[in-house]
Amino acid sequence: MKKMKSNKNFAAKSKTVPRVTSGTRKRRVEKQKTNLGLLSVEEFFSRGISDSDDGAGEFSDKDLSLENGDDSSADAIDNEVSSEGDYDDNKGGKISEDDKEEVNERESVSHKHSLKKLKNTDPEFYKFLEENDKNLLQFNVSDSESDQDEDEDDKTHVPPDKLEVGSDESDFEEGGDLKERKGGKVQITLKMVSAWREQLLVDKSPATIRTVVKAFHAALGHVSAEEDNDSQEFKVGGGSVFNAVVQLCVLELHPALKRILKLTSVSSKIDPVKAKKWVKVKTAIKSYIGDLLRLLGGVSSPHVLSVLLKHLHQLIPFVTCFPNLSKPVLKRLVMLWSCAEETVRVIAFLCLLRLITTKQKELLHQVLKKMYIAYVNNCKFMSPNTLSGINFMRRSLTEIYALDDAASYQHVFLYVRQLAIHLRNAITLQKREHLQSVYNWQFTHSLHLWVELLGATANRSHLQPLLYPLVQVIIGTINLIPTAQYYALRFHLTQLLIHLSKNTNVFIPILPFLLDVLNSYDFNKHHKKVSMKPLDFTCILRLSKSQLQENGFKDAVIEKIYQQILEYLSNEAHRISFPDMVVPTVIQIKTFLKTCKVSNYCKKLRQVMEKIEENARFIENERRKVAFSLDDRKAIEAWESTLKESGVPLQTFYASWNKLHVRQVAKSATDNEKLGEYNIPVLKKFQKRRSEEVEGPVVLFPSDDESEGEGAFGSDTGEPRTKRNKRTKKIKQQTLVQPDEVKIESDDGNDVEDVVEDLRLSDIE
Known about the structure:
Layout (H helix, E strand, L loop, with lengths): L1 H15 L5 H12 L7 H6 L14 H7 L3 H14 L12 H25 L1 H10 L1 H4 L3 H13 L32 E2 L2 H13 L4 H17 L10 E2 L3 H22 L17 H21 L3 H13 L1 H4 L3 H17 L2 H17 L1 H18 L6 H18 L3 H25 L2 H5 L4 H16 L10 H12 L8 H18 L6 H10 L24 H4 L2 H21 L6 H4 L1 H13 L3 H25 L9 H14 L2 H21 L2 H4 L29 H4 L12 H14 L7 E4 L5 E4 L6 H4 L1
Parallel strand pairs: 1-2
Antiparallel strand pairs: 3-4
């Protein structure tokens, strides 16, 4: 019974392996039985090729296992036979043509099955194949055989007569439709871009927007080396197509989004998330904004950056819908706001302002922190080139801080406290590194920022409690090193106090810091260096020793004292206490005038003193007319406001002087030489003419023999030098320059040569 079961199993297995015949099995057994590696060279040559060993008719272990019904052995034999080669058991050669036809039919069936599967999985691509490559869908075995025959016949390649040159001009050809590339990518042409533009203007379906976004992503992949090209559906080749795709997205994508989501100009403030079709375009918009940020990071042209930032400004309502994109957008905008060109900075600030006003609660704290850090980092160095950028950052940052006083108070309190800590360490430790942490441009510009912010929010009560600690930090910084080397820093800080007092209407004692300079420095000291212009303290904090020895240093100090005393007292000129407030100032100026011997310095300060005394007499005459008491603050404030509107002498003088000063500063900021601001006399050094040049004809290359015979008193003739000089002076007076030929114009307009003859002394006599 067991033998019968084994025979049945063997018959069943033999059906699954149709090509394994007895002849094939016999050859496999003979190959396994013959081990040529164990034979020597003589035994190998003594054996014939057709000789076989004993037991050739015996079966191998695999054959025995096959007879016993082992499935794995049957599969193994089938694999070995197929790897060894296609042999026929009867002919002992290659497989027949019938077997090849069976294999080709199997391949065609599998190909048709895969095409049917493609029709279900990707109908758009299947439709594309039907339109462009019908031969691929109508696959036939005969076509493949004919192709093989043609390949065998035409083995040599014959180039065409006219070769095509690959360039960007091929994008403009009419036949530049969709072309399939390697990996299933579609080549974008200008014709496709124009078709997409027309669809964006008319179509209201989000399919076109998704296609355009994919094309924009492929365009960035064309210029980016890190892009994964396998994930792209489109391929961009050539700069003209790249520019066309970017221009299409920048100009037409935002209007198409507004039309599809039904965000009209009236309802533009509505959140796009509430639109019905937002879900269909959400992924595409998120991908597009990310690609736009990448493009902003890779562009360096200010013009292109301006265009892209204007486009991003339109997309700000869509950016706020993605919290993950807010941080990278803020980072990129802050970087452009602090480091880019002037026009780019302005547009980046407008984008930041719109982004903050749209999502103020979520983004305001992040923006305030990042913008302040960027402001401080870019204020490390001060020069005429960076002055305008620093001023723009300070004013724009002040506007951002003024949006929310409650949120700004936390940041201002923290940063003013940090400045106070640096100042305390510098005062207590008196080390070089701590002093340098205070006396630098970053510290000064930080104080300038908070002074401008408190002045801009003077009518609000949230930030006014920070006024006193800020003033104390500024005064402590002035008194840290009160030497002449840091007079420039002193004038910067006193100017901040003047602006703060003027904008907040709070009295701050500033005059002692200005008058202290007159008492601490000797202006009668003779200078060691001469400078034609006074020093400009705008971009200077610390003066060098060579600058202290110039006369321009003393001129600049007197000019600054004159300017700031006038500016500060003009703000206080309408006060009822002005005559009493200026008494110490007048006394110190009179003391300086007695000791100073420089007339220019005395003239300026005497003029200031006269204007102060004139205004004090005016206020005294006006307050004699009042009838209210000194404790009536409302009446005093009303009287001061009336007097300020009517005008006082010191304010009138300062207004006229300030107009001229502003004009001079504007000219000095430009090219002084072209504007002719300073008419500096030019010293022309006239060369003395030698006596030999007058005596006799001019010799171009005189010999050395002429000067050898001259002694200490003159030439070889022994004539004294003084007499010869007198004679040459007379000859100089009577000698004329001899031009070669001078062309003059006659009455009829023709040029006539005027020949100048030599002039003789006898003719004159």
